[in-house]
Design brief:
- The chain is α/β, with parallel strands linked by helices.
- It has one domain: TIM Barrel.
- Strands 1-2-3-4-5-6-7-8 form an 8-stranded parallel β-barrel, surrounded by 7 helices.
- Strand 3, helix 4 and strand 4 form a beta-alpha-beta unit.
- Helix 6 packs parallel to helix 8.
- The protein is globular.
Length: about 220
């Protein structure tokens, strides 16, 4: 399973990369806006840090303009994956961009049939938002499981990129149902490598070792 980091903060991305836990990056207009920097500068810097896909989202609502924006984003760096929303216009743009050999991640997916539509239009990735489904009392992982099964049934190359991950438990369930990728906020990445028993065990081991007054 691949881990993407859901962040537009270069320092967060760099630190997580140093741990060996980042295979790619997802950004969105909100994350880019929080940096207070020009979007192109942020994306170029992320491309220099990470040896993997860097997802950047269009902001237009009409297909023709989405395609124009997608082409501009793709020209920033070969690593750029263009994010389009799951709307009729977004699907039109996805099809057009894919025909131009530009990888597309169709985002804001909340049903398996939306994911199927995106795959049929050539999407490289689909992003079901499981945390937002949890917010309204639905099981987001039932959705992910359905998408994974449908894609296997018809041998789609489209990868399932689980988004809106809010806890290590979300990541665990995504892995259990066979999602290809999960995109994780920096705070969730930090949580998955921590466990109190690990800390206690290490402390005890070092205490016993130090008593021997030896050196390796």
């Amino acid at each position: 399973m691949k881990f993407f980091i859901d962040s537009a903060e270069p320092e967060e991305v760099r630190e997580a990369c140093d741990w060996g836990l980042v295979d790619g990056v997802t950004t969105n207009p909100s994350l880019i806006a929080k940096t207070g920097r020009p979007y192109a500068d942020v994306l170029r810097e992320l491309c220099q840090i990470v040896d993997g896909p860097i997802n950047a989202e269009v902001v237009a609502e009409e297909a023709a303009t989405m395609v124009e924006e997608g082409q501009k984003l793709a020209q920033l760096d070969p690593k750029i994956v263009v994010k389009c929303p799951l709307t009729v216009e977004g699907l039109k743009a996805t099809r057009a961009l894919c025909r131009r050999s530009i990888a597309v991640n169709v985002t804001l997916i909340f049903s398996p049939l939306q994911a199927l539509a995106a795959a049929k239009c050539g999407a490289a990735y689909v992003s079901p938002f499981i945390g937002r489904l949890d917010d309204i009392g639905q099981d987001g992982f039932c959705l992910v499981e359905q998408i994974v099964k449908i894609f296997k049934n018809y041998s789609f190359a489209t990868q399932v990129l689980v988004a809106s991950v809010r806890s290590p438990h979300h990541l665990l369930r995504a892995a259990e149902v066979g999602a290809h990728i999960a995109t994780l906020p920096f705070n969730v990445i930090k949580q998955i490598v921590k466990h109190p028993l690990t800390d206690i065990g290490l402390k005890n081991f070092l205490c016993d070792w130090n008593k021997t007054k030896q050196h390796i």
